[in-house]
Every structure is written in C-alpha cells, then in structure tokens.
Design a protein that fits this description.
Oligomer: single chain
Shape: globular
Structural class: alpha/beta
Mean pLDDT: 77
Largest sheet: 8 strands, mixed
Number of domains: 1
Distance between the termini: 47 Å
Number of helices: 7
Length: 228
C-alpha cells in the first residue's frame, strides 16, 4: 500500500487502545503539543491531516515527464482534497436533494488525473457519493461543492472567483497568495513543508463551516484578504 493510501486508510481504521506510557519516558510530541492530548482533541481525521502537513510535498504542477516524485505529489494533493470534505461542513441547502452527490470539480489543466479518481473511489461525504467533474480552461464551473483551481487559470482567477460568488463552493488551489486574493484554501509549501492558508471570511460567507479542530492545526493559517 502506498504512502497516501496508508494515510487514507488510517482515517477509517478502528480505534486501538493506547499503550501505557513506560516509566521515565516522555511521550512523543507533534506540533509542540503532547501527542496524547492532541490525539484526543483531533481524532483519526486530525492525525491524517497532521501527517500530511508534516511531510514535505513538492509543487503540484509537474514537469512534463511523469516520475515517481510527481506521482507522490499528485497522491498527496488528492488526499488533501478528500480530507477537506472531512474538515469542512456544507449545509443541506447546497444539495439538490437527499440523494444528490457531492461534486468535486477540477478547473483547467488537470494536474491530478486518474490519481484523484482512485483516491476518491468508494469515498463519501455525509453518506453521499463523491463525483469528480473536470472543467476545461475557460469554462465557468457551476454546481461544485469543492473546486480545485489549476495554475493554468491564473490569468482569469478574479473572474472565476467573481462567477462563484453566491455559490456554496469551497475553492482550493496552490496558486500563490490564493487565499489572500479571494480564494478559500491555499495549499503552499514554504521551506518544503506544506502549509494551508484559509480565508475564513470567504469560506463562512459561502455558508461553509470549517471545523474547530482543522483551524487549530499548527500548519493551518487564517489570513486576511488583500485590500481591493
């Protein structure tokens, strides 16, 4: 089982009782907090995201040839996109009906390809199937609950975000200063460590609810939007 699939599997693994601490040993820590305390606060989903945030990840957009590191970075981003469905809540009004699927869109040149389809196969959001829809460069995406905006859409980013106003769509990208420019969640990697920047005003303004445990993670940063 590859690294990203192991991380996803950990999310659904049954709880195991914690082993008693050995006398004289100090428990390992993550994000400057005692592991036991953090585990109780975050749960399994929190640890999956913490593992991803702690791991180096190169830029999502590739060089032309497909390589092993490129495959890993694609798997990592696909795993992040799925985990956003775990850590963010959508209102019932975002769906056409009780059987309507959760729609995850990719806009522009797709850097994830079948890796995303594989990562999401069999996954659900609140009992709803997850459907992947791809929109070509220049398209106006509609009906998405989560939209990954490719770097190919940089020249028209503001027009895309303007068109999405009023929709209950979580926007995600690895574009530079994406959250500060009106997007919702930016995935960045300063000093080769993954960081997430979230624009809470935009996210909550779309009636979406990031969980408190997500916002408490060390590598998640709440940012203000640039002045217009």
């Amino acid at each position: 089982m590859n690294r990203s699939n192991r991380l996803l599997a950990a999310l659904f693994a049954p709880e195991r009782p914690a082993a008693p601490a050995s006398p004289g040993r100090v428990a390992s820590a993550c994000c400057d907090c005692p592991r036991g305390a953090l585990a109780g606060r975050l749960g399994r989903a929190g640890w999956v995201l913490l593992l991803l945030l702690a791991a180096p990840m190169p830029s999502v957009l590739p060089a032309e040839p497909t390589t092993a590191p490129l495959a890993l970075e694609r798997e990592s981003m696909a795993t992040f996109l799925y985990n956003f469905t775990v850590f963010v809540g959508w209102p019932a009004s975002a769906f056409a009906g009780p059987e309507a699927p959760f729609v995850l869109g990719v806009l522009g040149q797709d850097p994830l390809g079948e890796v995303l389809d594989t990562a999401l196969r069999g996954k659900t959001y609140a009992g709803r199937s997850i459907r992947v829809v791809r929109f070509p460069t220049g398209a106006k995406p509609a009906g998405c609950h989560l939209l990954f905006i490719s770097r190919s859409e940089e020249p028209r980013l503001q027009a895309i975000l303007h068109d999405l106003q009023g929709q209950k769509t979580l926007t995600v990208s690895d574009l530079e200063r994406f959250a500060q420019r009106g997007g919702m969640i930016a995935v960045t990697k300063p000093q080769k460590r993954v960081q997430l920047a979230i624009n809470l005003d935009r996210t909550r303004g779309a009636a979406l609810t990031p969980s408190a445990r997500f916002l408490s993670l060390k590598n998640v940063h709440i940012v203000a939007e640039d002045a217009q």
